Amino acid sequence: MGRVYRRQSHGPGPPIHISLGTGEAAGVFFLGETTMRRLSLFLAVAVLIGAAPVAAQSRILPRGVVNAASFARPGLPNGAIARGSIFSIFGTRLGPENPAQANSFPLPDSLAGVSIEVIQGDTTVAAIPLFAIASQINAIMPSDAPLGPASIRVTSGVLRSNFAPIEIVDTNLGIFTATGLGIGPGILQNFVSQSIQPINSLAGPANPGQFVTLWATGLGPVEFPDNEAPVAGNLPVDVEIWVGGAPVPAEDMAYFGRTPCCAGVDQFVFPIPATAPLGCYVPVHARTGGELLSNTVTIAISEGDGPCEDRFAELQSPGVFGTLFLVRATFEQTIDVPAPFEATADLAAASFRGETGGGFFFNPTTSLPPEGTCTVYSGSGDVFGGAVLPNSASTTGVLADAGTMIRLQGPGGVRRLPVMPIDPLNYLAGLGGAFPGGAGRRYFAEGQYTITGSGGADVAAFETGVDFPGAIDWTNRDAVDVIDRRSDLELTWAALGPGSQVAILVGNHDAPTDSLGVVACVSAGATGAFDVPARVLSSLPASRNGAHQSQGGVLLWQLEPSPAKFDSQGLDQGWAISINAAGKSAVFE
Questions:
Q1: What is the mean pLDDT of the chain?
Q2: Which domains, ranges and CATH numbers included, belong to the chain?
């Protein structure tokens, strides 16, 4: 009988239970018990979401059944549940008020009165509960579960939940993350020796050529019982892995199968490609079965023993940080409108936050991929307005008081940014724009702007200057109307100066399922061109034929490789960032 460790949560919500088998497996994937205990803490965070409020009946939330590592929403291409994978069910009164967990092999098909039915027509199989509490269940989808559309229902004592629709597939990988949100630093270990395999982090990056172990779930079904300690061995699944866009050669894959320690958990052992870029947030994703791409996680890579390099490296240490944004977005709308039109919006915003930093710090606003690479996010909401990534509107930390007002002065005159009463920004102001049928007036123009802060309890008064750039000359914008997600997307612009960079966002929102996919890339500006890979475009939902059922498009702007910095008493570091973005609506096939 194997051992079972419970991992404590570092945040709200219950931990997932993972069973640890006995015996030493061959190869570099074996972990000593001390390493396993340490890793357990990270895997706990990797499957947690805040608890839902208790209601008067047992209920599975809409779109509440997801892969326990990626949390990919149903409606996205990778939103299905794989045979043999760990998945999470979120809802109300799904289980006991106090956490319950399985504690030995064989894992039972009922836990504290909680059982799970997976139903397709006349076929019913029982999922294997690993952990249960009122708001969340973590379970293993049986390897013999029926493929295709199915329903899932939870019984907790005398209560039965509603039926929730799911899609079951053979393979659909989700990679565990240190953030516990399906994005950011992945759970990967740097192989140093059989007994030394530290978790990859900003403070402990890997080197090119070094072997790493990636932790995931959803590789595929197994022939041994899902409720028994896993048997080591590669699974008969086609596996492709990219690190910063560099493919891992198939012959270099040392292992891809269940980890001998943990029911439903998969391991992949491979070397970092020599051509992988260096950086703190190098994107990693995998494709299984030649079709479905996993969630994108990040890995830190550096040369030698030095730390990874990043444009916002200061955020890795605890402190109070401020970011000032001057933004213009010019967007050409050609979808679901009587006639094409172009609209421009100018705004300014500021965020001052106390951050805890650390080796697993991640914020999509600042944790950008290295030049020449792309990462993928998923969430909900419109692509270019109201989008919500799975980490509290893309912010971290706690708001800091920088005073009652920020003043902006430039060629367009003086504007004031009032305090916002809610997260994620301290300050925000719409400054104008040009809209069809309106009398709006643009505010921004190329030139120097001065930003002055009044100062508050946490951050003293400050003044800084920032240049507002001209718009990027997107030369093939008119050709971007219909995007084939099976082919690379070519984007071209008038070449920028040496050392310049271009940021690219490609996204699509599926309204009926409220599922959003966004690809974020960074390219060298001097090249004048970038191809967004088809493999990352495949993560976006396809556009629907009905009016206003999908909203998708592309956005480009010149990115500052070294953002302007400013200082103030009480502020460990501040940045002033200006963005002049050009956008275009598009249909995704």
A1: 87
A2: 3-25+45-169 (2.60.40.10), 174-301 (2.60.40), 313-588 (no CATH)
